[in-house]
Design brief:
The protein is α/β, with parallel strands linked by helices and about 250 residues long. About 40% of the residues lie in helices and about 20% in strands. It starts with a helix and ends with a strand. This is Sterol 24-C-methyltransferase.
Length: about 250
């Protein structure tokens, strides 16, 4: 082969290899950053003995579970929908939920509030719009300034930090016990935890568990008292369950 033909070939090969190497290093950097926020799980096959709460099979490790959740959270089409078409619509609906809680004296303008699994932060923005300005969300993928990076199986907060915690992603918890324990750990005594869950229908394909009644939640919230249960229409979730942490 002539030298003039070899040089372009080598040049193209070199730059292609360089691009692949850079992409791989960027991926490793992202994974390292993410791994610093998630817990190490010894048991790769979580089990729920309560017939009213079933863990979906198929996860060989905690990392495989996280990766499946990221497949949804990082989906560019979904992220575009969440920040455009769905943005104002969801804020309006969440604002209605939070205003109802304020009328029941379960949420106040002075409350320090956390939204768990908040994705782009619609519920955080809704809290701020109804007057609860000290509000923040957590998700595996941050969305500043409303949502910081955090794993709901291991919240990045001190004990007794919040007056109010809200989540509509209980069905995404691989370890429901840990999910609830973290809420109770970071709630102040007398603090309120609100979950929106699906009882009458099954959740989406990214869900890690299926809940069939409120009873398993009552068992999980060992340090709290059930305050209220009502039917809601919350983006595929049909039931609002409210607990207050014991003083």
């Amino acid at each position: 082969m002539k030298e003039s033909c070899i040089k372009p070939f080598v040049s193209k090969y070199f730059f292609a290899s360089l691009l692949l190497s850079i992409s791989f290093l960027l991926y490793l950097s992202y994974r390292s950053s993410l791994d610093s926020t998630i817990i190490s799980v010894v048991d790769p096959t979580p089990f729920s003995a309560d017939p009213g709460l079933k863990i979906r099979p198929g996860y060989t490790s905690y990392d495989s579970y996280v990766q499946r959740q990221l497949n949804k959270t990082l989906n560019p089409k979904l992220r575009k929908i969440w920040t455009t078409r769905d943005w104002n619509r969801k804020i309006l609906v969440f604002s209605g939920f939070f205003n109802d809680l304020k009328k029941k004296n379960l949420l106040f303008n002075s409350s320090k509030a956390l939204c768990i699994g908040a994705r782009m932060g619609q519920e955080v923005e809704a809290l701020k719009r109804v007057g609860v300005f000290d509000s923040v969300g957590i998700d595996l993928v941050p969305s500043p300034p409303l949502v910081m990076k955090g794993d709901f199986h291991h919240q990045p907060f001190d004990d007794e930090t919040f007056d109010f915690e809200f989540s509509n992603v209980f069905d995404h918890a691989l370890y429901p016990e840990k999910f609830v324990d973290e809420i109770q750990r970071t709630l102040k005594p007398g603090g309120v935890g609100v979950l929106h869950v699906a009882l009458s229908r099954r959740s989406d394909k990214y869900s890690a568990n299926d809940l069939f009644s409120v009873e398993p939640l009552k068992k999980l919230f060992k340090r709290s008292k059930l305050v209220h249960v009502r039917t809601v229409d919350g983006f595929g979730l049909d039931t609002e369950v409210i607990f207050r942490k014991n003083k």
